[in-house]
Amino acid sequence: MISFLGLGHMGVLMARRLVEAGHKVTVWNRTPRTVEGAFSAASPAEAVAEAELVITMLSDPAVVKRVLADAAPGLRPGALVVEMSTIGPEAVAELRDRLPSQVGLVDAPVLGSVQPARDGTLTVLAGGLPEDLARCREVLEVLGQVRQVGGPGSGAAMKLAVMSALVPAQVLIAETLAYGEATGVDRAALLDVLGGTPLGTLVERVRPAVENGPPETRYALSLAAKDLVLASHATQTLAAAARDRLLDAASAGLGGEDLTAVFGHVGAARRTGVEKLNPASVPATNGYYSHATRAGDLLFVSGQVALDADGQVVGEGDMTRQSEYVMEMLARVLADQGCTFDDVTHIRTHLTDMSLLPEYGAVRRRHITGEPPASTTVEVSRLFQPGLLIEVEVIAAIPAAR
């Protein structure tokens, strides 16, 4: 019996393929969803209780870890987990450490989107021990062409390496079209010329989205951004720029749209003259705001709080610690645009307890050492997450040379 955990755009089609191939399948999804011919379980543990093969197709590393932790009490000794999400090799290694030693693990992320998932023509990038790969190969071949790329973690690493080329290439075409529009180049003619270059296959794939707007979501923009965040490496400067562009688009509310929505986003940014900024040097936002926006030579930095990359409060109950963290985050956002605290024109501070102002003031003076900027400080009853004591936002003037 096969257990399939995760019924998103891709997962539901992949689970359906397995049912149509004659396999007995039990499915689970956080938001209840059914697959005709499959049994729907109420929990991950129930879903895996009788499974010899457990497939996960989920959104990100944190979700995969949480779902498999919930499934762990039901895993049978000798079961094999096939992780098909895009989570990266480090997360795969962590899963191996967390799973019982008698449970096997294969990492097998896929290339392809909704239509290949429906047709069973995905490319499956499989990594793992030879004996584990042999156990699941026949099942994976129902979903597409299986490419064994190496030992444990190799499939996850290969997927990120491939996406580090494919996703930035789409962003590059979006920026090229925006540049063409800005310089008076006819868009249709530009697409035709690009179609005759080595980029031609990709250009023709995205042309309908350029001309008619993004289609139904096949590869969510937020997932593309997540993939590039996972692939971050010092050598990947182009991928890093594409990552930041996609994070900006997600912050603008396009995360649930197809990746091709980036074409409209890049064009809109050029027309409005407002650039949304989300530096990789600070923890990502929740997608409902950008860390900063730049309009001409003015930089508007969102209120920074003491939350780490996992959304946990830093220095709970400690105003000095939270103030240090907030000022460091502000410094990083400013530095992303070539600014320092000397360039700040106005600083606004929200405190939950004005009696703690001296502690914040001492930290602030260590960071703002020159002539102080205009300033507003107010006391509020609470901030958006329990345990937060302070939130600080700034406006800065970007020097002309930057």
UniProtKB/TrEMBL annotation:
CDD domains (alphabetical): YjgF_YER057c_UK114_family
One of the record's GO molecular function terms: oxidoreductase activity
PROSITE patterns reported for this sequence: 3_HYDROXYISOBUT_DH (PS00895)
Any Gene Ontology biological process: organic acid catabolic process
Residues of the 3-hydroxyisobutyrate dehydrogenase-like NAD-binding domain: 153-262
Superkingdom, natural source: Bacteria
Every 6-phosphogluconate dehydrogenase NADP-binding domain range: 2-146
Matching Pfam families: NAD_binding_11, NAD_binding_2, Ribonuc_L-PSP
Name of the protein in question: 3-hydroxyisobutyrate dehydrogenase-like beta-hydroxyacid dehydrogenase
Organism encoding this protein: Streptosporangium album
